């Protein structure tokens, strides 16, 4: 690859020691993307993987609350950022740097800089998976991400409702445009089981699986709508901590295992391509 002079165009560079970067996105806000990202990270950790989590949802950085730690990260050496370790996962968030209720007002270049710093200036060490919680919608953060680091793939979270799926399709189209493979779709808040045992369908369960099929994409699983999942998020104790045998957490583990398998499959395919060319 020759050496690069100053100003030489630099494409996305893999992060040394980090095997897979997986983005979690949604078209619509509020569908539970962060809940899925946090529980996916914790579940992968419990499954024995080394996991990092970047909260790139700069407009609503909820990861610190959901991970139960809101203190500022330490700076080590020359401007290296030490990620926060919680529940077996290393994470970083703008919420740690600009805590409180003040919104971060940011212009494009600053946003790009933050995404780069979170990838390159954080002491991630060896990771099997670096999960990135994207802001809802389609936009700048994804561009910054793909310009900085090669992604293994993206997970798209939706509810089964028509409007959420309409926006999820836009997210799929965006990942296609920036050449990021979609690992699969997750349906969140799928069904709800009442204390009586009656199951109610709030957002149109099944819609996400049908959309995945239409696009020839993998359906990674359906997650129940349950107040304990919300409480876990609010208390900083993600439901996945309950382990794969827990009734409420098991579906998150199903998703986590599928994501891990598919990510490894995608990575091995792209290695083959590199060897051939
Ligand atoms: N399966 C679920 N059951 C119950 N509550 C849930 C579930 N998933 C998410 N929630 C709750 O719904 C709210 C929104 O979830 P979350 O913040 O994860 O959404 P989001 O898509 O990341 O939102 P945004 O990106 O727009 O900030 C949170 O209070 C969360 O605890």
Automatic annotation (TrEMBL):
GO molecular function: 4 iron, 4 sulfur cluster binding; ATP binding; ATP hydrolysis activity; ATP-dependent FeS chaperone activity; metal ion binding
Alphabetical GO biological process terms: iron-sulfur cluster assembly
InterPro entries xrefs: Mrp-like_CS, Mrp/NBP35_ATP-bd, NUBPL-like, P-loop_NTPase, YlxH/NBP35
Keyword vocabulary terms for this entry: ATP-binding, Hydrolase, Iron, Iron-sulfur, Metal-binding, Nucleotide-binding
Top-level lineage group: Bacteria
Record: residues binding ATP: 27-34
Record's function text: Binds and transfers iron-sulfur (Fe-S) clusters to target apoproteins. Can hydrolyze ATP.
Subunit structure: Homodimer.
Family to which this protein belongs: Belongs to the Mrp/NBP35 ATP-binding proteins family.
Protein's name in the database: Iron-sulfur cluster carrier protein
Species annotation: Edaphobacter aggregans
């Amino acid at each position: 690859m020759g050496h690069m002079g100053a100003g030489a165009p630099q494409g996305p560079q893999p992060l040394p020691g980090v095997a897979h970067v997986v983005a979690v996105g949604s078209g619509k806000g509020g569908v539970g993307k962060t809940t899925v990202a946090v529980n996916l990270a914790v579940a992968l950790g419990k499954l024995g993987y080394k996991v990092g989590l970047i909260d790139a949802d700069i407009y609503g950085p909820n990861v610190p609350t959901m991970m139960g730690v809101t203190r500022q990260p330490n700076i080590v050496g020359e401007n290296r950022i030490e990620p926060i370790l919680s529940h077996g996962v290393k994470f970083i968030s703008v919420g740690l740097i600009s805590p409180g209720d003040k919104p971060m007002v940011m212009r494009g270049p600053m946003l790009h800089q933050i995404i780069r710093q979170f990838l390159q200036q954080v002491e991630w060490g060896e990771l099997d998976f670096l999960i990135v919680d994207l802001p809802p919608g389609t936009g700048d953060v994804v561009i910054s991400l793909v310009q900085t680091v090669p992604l293994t793939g993206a997970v798209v979270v939706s509810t089964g409702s028509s409007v959420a799926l309409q926006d999820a399709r836009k997210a799929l189209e965006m990942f296609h445009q920036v050449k990021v493979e979609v690992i699969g779709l997750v349906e969140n808040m799928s069904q709800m089981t009442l204390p009586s045992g009656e199951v109610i369908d709030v957002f149109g369960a099944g819609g996400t699986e049908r959309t995945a099929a239409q696009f020839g994409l993998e359906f990674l699983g359906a997650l129940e709508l349950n107040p304990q999942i919300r409480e876990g998020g609010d208390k900083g104790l993600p439901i996945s901590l309950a382990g794969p045998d827990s009734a409420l957490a098991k579906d998150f583990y199903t998703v986590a295992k599928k994501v891990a398998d598919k990510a490894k499959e995608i990575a091995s395919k792209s290695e083959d391509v590199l060897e051939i060319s």
